[in-house]
Amino acid sequence: MQEDANHEKRLLSAEKSPRHDFRGWYEAVYPRLEGFGVWMRGIGVNVIPASEFDCREFRLLTVRLSTWRDTACSFSHLLLYALASEIEGVFPDIAYLPPRLDLRWYDEGNAPWWLGIVTKKAPRAFDMIGISNATILELVNLPHLLRTAGIQEELSKRMADPAAPLLILGGANAPAARYLIGESSPVDGIFVGESLDDIRHLISLAMEGKKAGASKEVILSRMEDVPGFIRTGSAGRRYPRRPADIAGEKYPKKLPAFEEMSPVRIEISSGCVAFCRFCAESWWRKPYREVPMEEVVRRAAALKATTGADGVEVYSFNFNTHAEIKGILDTFRTMFADVTLTSQRLDVFGRDEALRETLKSLGKSSLTFGIEGISERLRRYLGKALSDSNMFAGLSAAFAARPRELKLFFLATGLETESDLAEFEQFLRRTAGMRKVGGEKSRVIVSMTPLVRFPDTPLEDEAAPPVETMASILRKAAGLVRSAGLEYREAMGLDEWRISQILASPHPHAWAALSQVVLKLGFVYYGRISSGFISAVESALAELDKRSSCALRDTDRLLQRGRRVTGVCSAFLSTERDKALLFEDAPICRGASQASGRQCVACGACDGLTFPTVVRSTHGFSDSSVSTARGIEKDRDLVPVAILVNMAEQARGVPRKLAAMAVASAIMQKEHGTVPDYYRFASSYWGDDEGAAWIFGDDILTLEWRKGCVGFLHKRLESPAFVSDLHT
């Protein structure tokens, strides 16, 4: 109770005597912060200086619910920053949850946990806060983050407070945050769309409303016209999500790069060709769409020039299903020193020799595949569309590539029988045998995750199994994996699974119970949930249900279904739910029948689209493309170019690679012809190339370029006028 009283006192203090500027506090305390507070420095490439804050009429703070380290590989907050920075009159900033050990210093200085890293301004200094929500668990931190910011949780109190910023939640997990809808919602709106134009429109509506002196009520009412926007406290108009034309929409010209030095992330497709029944994002992002290779390469080249990045991440649910992936990867090999790839389908990997050769030439020594069900029966239940024959063909091809590491992901559904476990044991022993034959030195990691049944998927209405059942299945699976001589991991603990399932279920009291317990216990989520916390949430939930005599009713479920965020029709969802109960497999999307020559599965996701979705009837590449991939390697004739730079004192602690990105970007933007020839940052004279560098003053940064442009580059760098232009 004392903890809750302290938080209430701090909330009232922030509302009555708001302190917006914390630059002095940061300068005094940063030596005590994690990594000496470099993550809060706010120095980077394509970053609008803090001096612009008072010159722009609208301020947007994009916030994360996790720490900068946990979100360093994320992209959504950087994309939102870039979109906002291109709108005239908008000043964007970014804030994170502080690291655990830093909370002491924040609380002693009465500093809000969310602070703009560029301006060191408090959230109440901004007009709108965009909450980027990546996972369902990190929403646990929202009550504390709002309290320390001096922002009320209750919707009515925020509406009555003209100084409180608008709170709009979006991100990968936003469609699962439906339990935040209601009169007591901690946010004013939820955006479940994906169109960049719609995001721009929301920001512009808020800015125009502020300029006109409109109330929050009026601004939010106007936002309801934007597809994918849900006003949390209103039962009025609801517009479905509009799938984005990812190939045709305007992409930001510049992305910010801060201390985390993320590579350029290029989205090559959205949605997925599969209808895996467990995968929420796949259903939420239907239909499957591809960005043509030409546009992918154009965007990559533009972002390389404006960021100075020497690495690229290929973003896709399953990158190897893209029709032109071979050409994309071959091109990226000549453009970037490092190409990062995420997930891929095992069956496609097994049958595409040319793509395997390309991956090998990229130096990819770690392979990751989602097999999901521990038996063929459970893979059919999950809708994985992966037969035993295709699975083992893919694994055979994987071991033939002699990877350093092979990660195999599985889901524990709670439906596993002794027969399923026996089949899993045979699979593990066969996999161990294949490793001895094809890749004896390969490290094989088997990861198990308890299945969370998300809304707007065919499994949404299924009851989660008892925790004892799930614990028994995981325990047996772990024993089988270790007996086969393979490594075992659990991607999510049972406590994390339990709270995830509570929050994924559209329970009318989920948020009230969660917030109550979080504030009472002073709990902050840093990757782990305790069983005591779970028990407290479950008890609070039961008490709230008892008081209102209103657990989740059939009418509540119907109301929630009226707020579906997927473009897939309810009839198709129902069909797939029925097929799951019969352990029948799910289809693969082949697109419109007139384009593919195959019958459409009639999921409804393509209905009403005004742009084409990329479709093909087959997937694969000719053997002749293998020689092309190998030939590119000979083209890499690199020459180091040393450049003298002066690092200002305020850049202490900033990684030298970030400085090198700024230099490379300045050169490429002045001389566009050098974009294909820049390869990577090689070294700094003072060393510690990617870590924090505390020496300031003169340094020598060495960048590698292709031999053909080095003579021209030397001449340009010898020109005082050219060097002077690089500073502008």
Q: Could you explain how this protein is built, in words?
A:
The chain has 728 residues and is of the alpha/beta class. The protein is 39% helix and 14% strand. The strands form five sheets. A six-stranded mixed β-sheet has the order 2-1-3-4-5-6, with helices on one face. The chain has a four-stranded parallel β-sheet with strand order 12-13-14-15. A three-stranded parallel β-sheet has the order 7-10-11, with helices on one face. Strand 10, helix 11 and strand 11 form a beta-alpha-beta unit.
Q: Topology, please?
A:
Layout: H1 2-16, H2 23-29, E1 58-64, H3 76-85, E2 90-95, H4 103-108, E3 128-132, H5 142-148, H6 155-159, E4 166-170, E5 189-191, H7 196-211, H8 216-223, E6 229-231, E7 264-267, E8 269-270, H9 280-284, E9 289-290, H10 293-307, E10 311-315, H11 325-335, E11 338-341, H12 346-351, H13 353-361, E12 366-372, H14 376-382, H15 388-400, E13 405-412, H16 418-438, E14 443-450, H17 467-483, E15 487-490, H18 494-504, H19 510-521, H20 531-548, H21 554-561, H22 570-581, H23 593-596, H24 624-632, E16 638-647, H25 656-670, E17 678-684, E18 697-706, H26 707-717, H27 720-726
Parallel strand pairs: 1-2, 1-3, 3-4, 4-5, 7-10, 10-11, 12-13, 13-14, 14-15
Antiparallel strand pairs: 5-6, 8-9, 16-18, 17-18
